[in-house]
Amino acid sequence: MYFVQYVVNIMNDDLTQMELQFIEDFSLLMIQDRFPRMAGRILCLLLLKDPEPLSAPQIGALLKASKGSVSTLLRQLLAAGLIEQKAIPGERREFYGSGNLVIDKLFVAMQMLAKAYVLLIDKAEADLALAGKALSPGLKRLRWAEEGMLEALPVLQRQLNERIAARQKQAQRVPDADSSAESKSDNVTAAQSGERFQW
Q1: What is the pTM of this model?
Q2: In what order do the strands lie in the sheet with 54-55?
Q3: Residue 130 and residue 140: Cα distance in Å, rounded?
C-alpha cells in the first residue's frame, strides 16, 4: 500500500517552474558534453528527486517525454556510468537514481582529458625532435599544467568525497523543524507540571 501511494504521489508531483527552468539550463550544459538534451533533462530530474528513485514511466510523465525516448536515453546514461538501477522490494519494474556517480564520472572525465592532452603534447614533442625543432614554451606550460592536474585530481576527489560524507552526516543530525517544535513544547509542558527527564 505504501509503495502504491508513493507512486501516485510521484506521478502527481508536477515540477515547479523553477525546477523546470533548472532542468532546461542543466540540459544545455549536457549538450556541451555531447549528450542529447533529453538525457540532460533525465539526469537533472534524478538529481532533483534524489534519494528517491524513479521508474521510466514516472520520468516520462514528469518530463512529458515518450516512452521510447526515455528508455533509450536511460540506457545511454547507464552505459556512461552517470546513473544506476535501483531495486524496490516487491516491485518488478526497474527504477533509476543518481548519487555520487555524477561526481565520480566528472573526475574520471577530467583525468582522461588531462591524460589525452599530455599524450598529444608528448607526440608533438617527439615529432618536432625528429625535425630538429623544440617544443614551444606555450605547449610546455600546458603539459606541465595537465601533468599537475593528473597528480592533483585523485587527491581532490578523495577530499571532496570526504567533505560530502561529512556534510551528509551533519545533515542527518539536524533535527526536523516539526519534531524540534514538538520537543520544545513537550519540555515546556513537563517543566510546568514539575516533571523531570533523565537524559
Answers
A1: 0.60
A2: 54-55, 95-97, 84-86
A3: 17
